């Protein structure tokens, strides 16, 4: 993976020193909160309900064991023994004291991590497919490009005060696991007919109060033009994006209001001005970054087939975990493992200090020291020899992280909601927990099949409810929590925004309503191979409305 | 009825104005029963904010039943107790004796 060079080290150290000084001046009363707020936000420090919150960047979701161990250390020493992995592949700590944050940042810097640009109206952490470098269906690893974008966008003077925050995601496979069409810029790395690498470029996706699916403005952008083209997009946005209304300031609104044809024309015109200037990426530079992401030396481990076969016979629970949480690797002797942070009844995305340390040990021992954070709030071991899967599974059982529910209904994305967040209007974690407990039986979950359920505790949609097969949005109505349900959303290569199914449900009703929706699906699917999303696309909302609300209409 | 709440600058701890200082629990918070008392609390909050003791100062609605101060909004109930999914965290996790002190 990427290692800091001298420049990176100096840059991060300088920022730690600068922010430590700012914190000291704030604590001494030399600067006001109004002066300090933008400074702390630029360093990932929010103020929430109970305490400050520190959001730490995990660039494109990639970690090594030393880094994860450090996160465990921070959780224990400065926080309350746990961290929350987020939908942007980052981690948040919910209880740090402001006075401790300089020490936390110094600890992070010692393992090449930071919290820079995890907030503010700048280019945020660039996210990528969590199976990058391992996936069998990948054209090339998207992370070198994410790293190039990170270097270019870090404290970029022109793009540090955009109309609003800006999020970029990159995938290297046809099957989109990075939700690129819900991002401000989505990049799909692919090869053209000549076998050259480049990108399909999508612009103007986003969630929040106005969900929009990104529009493809270029089918093939040569890799050398990545930065010049992104610069052109950002220049058009910086110039024409609205600054008068926070809710209309994202690029999705500009793209929507300008029209895709005109915005494409503007971007292309801007790009023509500078495409062959200093932002053109030299081939040698791309390959130099590429080299950092060279895959580990995967030695042949052909004994894996036999080992897995025997272990399957020996343990039903291992067999189930294998079917659900282990995916094909580009090397036949290896596999990529999803470590579910969605234990039945647990808070989605939370991991304890000791779990982080144990997973770090596992990565070191069995996974070439590599880990990923997925935007679905799980951890990934991208390269595990099939021969070692049973050992990995047994170790995960020991730390309570072997739940075999990847992509099932209890693999819920959930924002922190009103239990922590100052913006939230309703709780989301307890709703996730109750649904998870209702569907606790893994047998029942497998019978239901792939079902992506996503919950947000406010309209900002950090919990991605718009693109959940089933989405739940919590709002406050007349002083009580009300949960609105959307159906038919999806965040893959066939991205769609879910439709509101009808009136919302109280916190006492929501789990029953979800169960009703699931039962309705089971009753109408053609057979077990027809997934929830496919069935919904076939039949539309009517049968679900009928199941949820027909009684009311009659009663009225 | 209203009480004055904020977060302490140095550690972000949720605090309520009580007996001339900032308490870590809502239990003994000064309750404003009329506009004049609200104005007085508001002035105290503005001063504490200017003195860099606390941030995010707000007057919040409460009810008082049998001497127990209870916030009206769920958001403030959660601030006063801690995350509802983790009874081991926040004010609710502290021994009652310590909370009363």
TrEMBL record, chain A:
Asked whether the keyword Phosphoprotein is assigned, the reply is no
Pfam families from the UniProt entry: NIR_SIR, NIR_SIR_ferr
Task: List, in alphabetical order, the Gene Ontology terms for molecular function in this entry.
Answer: 4 iron, 4 sulfur cluster binding; heme binding; metal ion binding; oxidoreductase activity
- Please state every residue range assigned to the domain named Nitrite/sulphite reductase 4Fe-4S: 119-273, 411-548
Give the organism the record lists: Mesorhizobium prunaredense
Q: Which InterPro entries match?
A: NIR_SIR_4Fe-4S, NiRdtase/SiRdtase_haem-b_fer, Nit/Sulf_reduc_fer-like_dom_sf, NO2/SO3_Rdtase_4Fe4S_dom, NO2/SO3_Rdtase_4Fe4S_sf
What are the alphabetically sorted keywords of the record? Answer: 4Fe-4S, Heme, Iron, Iron-sulfur, Metal-binding, Oxidoreductase
Spell out the protein name for this chain: Sulfite reductase
Output the Gene3D superfamilies linked to this UniProt entry.
3.90.480.20, Sulfite Reductase Hemoprotein, domain 1
Residues covered by the Nitrite/Sulfite reductase ferredoxin-like domain: 52-110, 335-396
TrEMBL record, chain B:
InterPro entries xrefs: DUF2849
Q: Where is this region: Disordered?
A: 80-101
Protein name as annotated: Nitrite reductase
Query: Which lineage do the record's taxonomy fields give for this organism?
Result: Bacteria, Pseudomonadati, Pseudomonadota, Alphaproteobacteria, Hyphomicrobiales
């Amino acid at each position: 993976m990427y290692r800091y060079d001298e420049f990176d080290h100096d840059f991060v150290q300088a920022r730690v020193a600068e922010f430590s000084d700012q914190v000291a001046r704030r604590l001494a009363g030399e600067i006001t909160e109004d002066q300090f707020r933008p400074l702390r936000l630029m360093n990932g420090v929010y103020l929430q309900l109970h305490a400050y919150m520190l959001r730490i960047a995990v660039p494109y979701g990639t970690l090594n064991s030393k880094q994860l161990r450090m996160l465990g250390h921070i959780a224990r020493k400065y926080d309350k023994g746990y961290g929350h992995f987020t939908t942007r592949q980052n981690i948040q700590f919910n209880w740090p004291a402001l006075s401790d944050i300089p020490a936390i940042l110094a600890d992070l810097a010692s393992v090449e991590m930071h919290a820079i640009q995890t907030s503010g109206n700048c280019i945020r952490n660039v996210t990528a497919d969590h199976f990058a470098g391992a996936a069998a269906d990948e054209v090339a690893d998207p992370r070198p490009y994410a790293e190039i974008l990170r270097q270019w966008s870090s404290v970029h003077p022109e793009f540090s005060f955009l109309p609003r925050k800006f999020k970029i995601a990159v995938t290297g496979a046809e099957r989109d696991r990075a939700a690129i069409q819900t991002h401000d810029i989505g990049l799909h790395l692919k090869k053209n007919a000549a076998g050259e690498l480049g990108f399909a470029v999508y612009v103007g996706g986003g969630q929040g109060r106005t969900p929009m699916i990104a529009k493809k403005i270029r089918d093939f952008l040569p890799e050398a033009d990545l930065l010049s083209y992104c610069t052109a997009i950002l220049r058009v946005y910086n110039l024409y994006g609205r600054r008068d209304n926070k809710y209309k300031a994202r690029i999705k609104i500009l793209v929507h209001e300008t029209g895709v044809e005109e915005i494409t024309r503007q971007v292309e015109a801007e790009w023509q001005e500078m495409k062959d200037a200093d932002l053109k990426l030299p081939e040698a530079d791309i390959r130099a970054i590429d080299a950092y992401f060279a895959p580990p030396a995967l030695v042949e481990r052909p004994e894996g087939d036999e080992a897995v076969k025997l272990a399957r016979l020996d343990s039903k629970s291992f067999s189930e975990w294998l079917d659900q949480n282990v995916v094909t690797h580009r090397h036949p002797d290896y596999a990529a493992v999803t470590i579910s942070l969605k234990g039945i009844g647990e808070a989605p995305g939370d991991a304890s200090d000791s779990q982080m340390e144990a997973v770090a040990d596992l990565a070191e021992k069995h996974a070439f020291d590599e880990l990923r954070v997925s935007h679905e709030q799980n951890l990934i071991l991208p390269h595990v020899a099939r021969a070692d899967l049973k050992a990995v599974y047994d170790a995960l059982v020991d730390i309570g992280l072997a739940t075999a529910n990847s992509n099932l209904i209890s693999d819920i994305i959930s924002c922190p909601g009103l239990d922590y967040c100052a913006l939230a209007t309703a709780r989301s974690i307890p709703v996730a927990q109750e649904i998870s407990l209702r569907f606790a039986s893994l047998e029942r979950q497998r019978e239901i099949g792939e079902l992506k359920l996503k919950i947000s505790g406010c309209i900002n949609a950090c919990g991605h409810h718009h693109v959940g097969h089933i989405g739940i949005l919590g709002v406050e109505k007349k002083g009580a929590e009300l949960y609105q349900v959307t159906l038919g959303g999806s965040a893959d290569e066939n991205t769609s925004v879910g439709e509101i199914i009808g009136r919302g449900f109280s916190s006492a009703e929501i789990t029953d309503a979800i169960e009703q929706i699931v039962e309705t699906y089971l009753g109408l699917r053609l057979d077990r191979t027809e997934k929830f999303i496919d069935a919904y696309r076939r039949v539309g909302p009517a049968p679900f409305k009928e199941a949820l609300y027909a009684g009311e209409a009659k009663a009225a | 009825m209203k009480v004055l709440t904020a977060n302490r600058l140095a550690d972000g701890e949720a605090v309520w104005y009580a007996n001339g200082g900032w308490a870590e629990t809502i239990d003994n918070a000064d309750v404003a029963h009329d506009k004049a008392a609200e104005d007085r609390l508001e002035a105290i909050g503005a001063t504490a904010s200017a003195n860099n003791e606390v941030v995010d100062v707000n007057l919040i609605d409460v009810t008082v039943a049998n001497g127990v101060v209870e916030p009206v909004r769920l958001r403030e109930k959660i601030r006063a107790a801690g995350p509802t999914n983790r009874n081991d965290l926040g004010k609710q996790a502290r021994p009652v004796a310590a909370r009363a002190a």
